[in-house]
Structure formats: structure tokens, C-alpha cells
Amino acid sequence: MIKGFVFDLDGVLTDTAEYHYLAWQELGEKIGISFDREFNEQLKGISRMDSLERILAYGHKSNLYSEEKKMILADEKNEDYKKLITQITPADLLPGITELLMDLKKAEIKLALASASKNGPVILERLGIADVFDAVIDPATLMHGKPDPEIFIKGAEQLGLRPEECVGVEDAEAGIEAINAAGMFSVGVGNEQSMKAADLFVAATTDLKLSTILAAAQSQQKERKF
Ligand code: B16
Ligand code: MG
């Protein structure tokens, strides 16, 4: 029986990827590395420091900066990003998400946020949905980022549930891998190619219907012996 949903934030509840892109681009200009939206796809779901490492590697500048300087660069990007996300309002919830959250509340299903973003709580506030979440995992407390299952396992734990009682929702390949490794039913939204490992795939957030997800999760549970 499904009693909890553990959500990714960026790309599932709202689309902050463009803001991350703009802020990284601004940093890129300062250090002489330019990249396009296609490269930015690789940064989705990846932590701030890992994103910086990927950008430096892309620009063949990995060895130019000390760890201390890298922290400063990542902080600069985050300061720009924080300015950009002050523009977020409830209108930035992706289509269908308000209905899904309302249906989950009505069904008394518990909700946790499993975002790699340290800005997650601020974004939930700005979207006007902070109150509907029973738990928000602090990514600063994690030993490993996605695709490690840690963040989803903690999500279930903080809801007082077992992973098998939860559904995880993601838009990034590393995220689906993390959900599957946690032993949860995985729902992937967005790019079909990246969501190949998802237990259930939907093309758009408007297709995230509670009844469809529960039916799919329950039929899978019948097949498995937990
Ligand atoms: P921050 P998610 C991720 O959010 C983003 O997809 C990724 O691009 C970003 O680098 C990461 O959060 C860290 O964000 O710099 O705000 O701590 O998809 O896991 O919700
Ligand atoms: Mg995401």
C-alpha cells in the first residue's frame, strides 16, 4: 500500500533549470567558459560543486583552481541564482502539479522533498507549497548525491515509512536510478530516453495523475514479494 510520495523539485514541481543555466553562464563568462543549453542538460539533478567540476572539465580548466577558489566560484553562482529565484511565484508550479498535490492531500498520502538543491526550502515557500510537505531532506546532511539512493531512503524514513510504501518522482536519469536503488516505485517525467529505467514514464507533468500512479505501483507490488 502506497502511503508516501517523495518528490524531486527541479523539473518535477517547477522548472528552475533556466535560472541555474543563467547563473552558471554568468559565472562562465567570468572564467572564460561558454556552454549552451544542451550542455546544461547534464547539470540537472547534479549538486552545485559537481556542476562546477563538470563546467571546468568542459572548459579544460579543471586544474586551474584550488578547492578554496572553487568554493568561492560556486558561492558566486549561488548568489546570482538566489537573486533570480526571487522571481518565482505560485504561477511557476508546472502544469498539473497543484491538482496532484491536492489529490495526494485528500488521499492522506504523506509528502517529502528529495531535492539536491540547498535552495529547495526557499523555492517551496515561493511556490506557496511549503505547508503541504511533511518532510524536506536537507542535502547538506547527505554523504552521497543522486544516483546514490540515500536522499530517497531518508525521505521515506522521515515520513516514518518503508521505501516500498513510497513512490519517487523524478525528471533526471540519476534520480530514477536513486529511486530504484532505494526500492521505491519510480515515476519518471520528461525525456523518455533518460527515463528508460523508470517503472512508470509520463511525458509531461499534466500526465502525473494520482489514480494512474497508484494503480501502476500497486500492480507492481502484487508481482513482487516484499
Ligand atoms: P543548489 P533537483 C538540483 O535540483 C538541480 O537540478 C541542479 O541543477 C542543481 O545543481 C542542484 O539541484 C543543486 O542546487 O545549487 O540550489 O543547491 O533536480 O535535485 O531538485
Ligand atoms: Mg530534477
Summary, kept brief:
This protein has 226 residues and is of the alpha/beta class. The protein has two domains: 4-15 and 91-225, HAD superfamily/HAD-like (Rossmann fold, 3-Layer(aba) Sandwich); 17-87, Putative phosphatase, domain 2 (DNA polymerase, domain 1), CATH 1.10.150.240. It has helices at 17-31, 37-40, 48-58, 67-84, 97-106, 120-127, 150-158, 173-182, 210-223, and strands at 4-7, 110-113, 135-136, 166-170, 185-189, 200-202.
> With helices defined by DSSP (H or I, 4 residues minimum), what is the helix count?
9
Q: By helix and strand content, what is the structural category?
A: alpha/beta
Q: What is the CA-atom radius of gyration, in angstroms? A: 18 Å
Shape descriptor: globular
Indicate the CATH class of the largest domain: Alpha Beta
How much strand content do the residues show?
A: 5-15%
Number of individual domains: 2
Q: What's the count of strands? A: 6
CATH topology of the largest domain: Rossmann fold
> Residue-averaged pLDDT, rounded?
95
CATH architect. name of the largest domain: 3-Layer(aba) Sandwich
Explained architecture:
By secondary structure, the protein is of the alpha/beta class. It has 2 domains: 147 residues, HAD superfamily/HAD-like (Rossmann fold); 71 residues, DNA polymerase, domain 1 (Orthogonal Bundle). The protein has 9 helices and 6 strands. Strands 3-2-1-4-5-6 form a 6-stranded parallel β-sheet, sandwiched between helices. Strand 4, helix 8 and strand 5 form a beta-alpha-beta unit. Helix 1 packs across helix 4. It is globular. Bound molecules: 1,6-di-O-phosphono-beta-D-glucopyranose (B16) and magnesium ion. Magnesium ion (MG) binds next to loops.
